[in-house]
Amino acid sequence: MKRIVVTGAGGQIGVELTPHLRAIYGAENVLATARRVIPGPVSEGGPFDLLDVRDGKAFADMLRSFGADTVIHLAGVLSAKGEGDPLTSWDINVCGSCAALEAARECGAAFFFPSSIAAFGPSTPAKNTPQDTIQRPTTIYGVAKVTMELLCDYYHRKFGMDTRGLRFPGLISYEALPGGGTTDYAVHIYYDALKKGSYTSFIAAGTYMDMMYMPDALSAVVQLMEANPAKLVHRNAFNISAMSFEPEQIAASIRKVLPGFTMDYDVDPLRQGIAESWPDSL
Fold first, then answer.
1. Looking at the annotation, which residues are catalytic?
2. pLDDT tens digit string along 175-195?
């Protein structure tokens, strides 16, 4: 990677990955894009431009102008938010991703796509979920992830394009609040612990989901994109994770630092249903 374009740079991953890439490859070599200006390091620490990823021509023109050799495609609508407007979610997560993939192909750029544990469903083995297994997701977000996993594989086979991807678990970060995902509670709980000394969880006790600390996720992206392609067993959708836990375990760890911390539950049926359809551990 020498000249990198990041889409969705204002999202939970993008606000941290963009500065991380600039620190490695040089600020002038990482162009951040989003649909609106993102105050702070993303827009002020290096090249930044506005982009709707569904506009394939504008995207391709941008890649050519910047001389990009790599696209890190992070733009998308998250799981719980997507269920509120499935058609818009599909439009951005699939149609936008297709436009981005084709623009990268036209310009000879490598393409990174972030898949998710949402690509699995209730019929997937829930514990120690294998890399290759049945994928029948029950959310529009998950269906979109499977679609793009397959399309990225297709572009590699059909066109010899350098496509790569990871299946991210829930990501824990303090730099930015998450934006409508099912695993968001694992970030919100820390904010509320500091602000209020308490938290009301929308995920039920005993619900295990895979998680990863954001710096580990950023490192995984760079390691995958820098890996020798001849040694990649899979091109896309590598399972990665760091830990699996449920809400009471986080609460117990917080009480070690804040003994008076309390937690109760107001379970959101939508997000709880999504969580129960995902694996307990990869």
1. 141
2. 877 677 888 899 999 999 999
